[in-house]
Sequence to fold (167 residues):
Amino acid sequence: MKSFRLNSKIGRRGLILGSGALALLRMARARADEAAGEVFEVTHSPEEWRALLGPDRYAVLREAATEPSGSSPLNNEHRAGTFDCAGCKLPLYASDAKFDSGTGWPSFTAPLPDAVRTKADKGWIFTRTEVHCRRCGGHLGHVFDDGPAPTGKRYCMNGLALTFTAA
Fold:
């Protein structure tokens, strides 16, 4: 029986090309959102956002990247307080809405009133519901219908999109 072995150069090349294509799609999506006329209270140029956020937070908040599961120190944050937008400091989630979803990302049952907006995130395979800050438009994560009571929602957020303010 003949075995098949992937050429490692093709694998790396494919990974690099795929990563580049994903980055281009994210930039196109960001431009499309701006062109769609969504207006936010807090705005900056891409260069200003990069300087304010640093590369990792910029990738999550402005390009809709996802941090690695389990990488956020906020997973272990259990004090009373609020989880705020890392882009504009708007309080987004109360600590009593946080729960351990087992996913590796900070998860919440509900946002604070008038804190977030949602929109369809049409991926290659399926459509999810993206969550973004209503004040600066920063990408926070996604919301799913598999959370605990009382809402049945799981707001699965990137820890890099959030900061914590103790009460």
Q: What stands out?
A: Confidence is low (pLDDT under 50) at residues 1-10. The chain has one domain: 38-166. Residues 38-166 form a domain with the Metal Binding Protein, Guanine Nucleotide Exchange Factor; Chain A fold (CATH 2.170.150.20). The beta strands are 81-85, 91-94, 98-99, 107-108, 116-122, 127-133, 139-144, 154-157, 162-166.
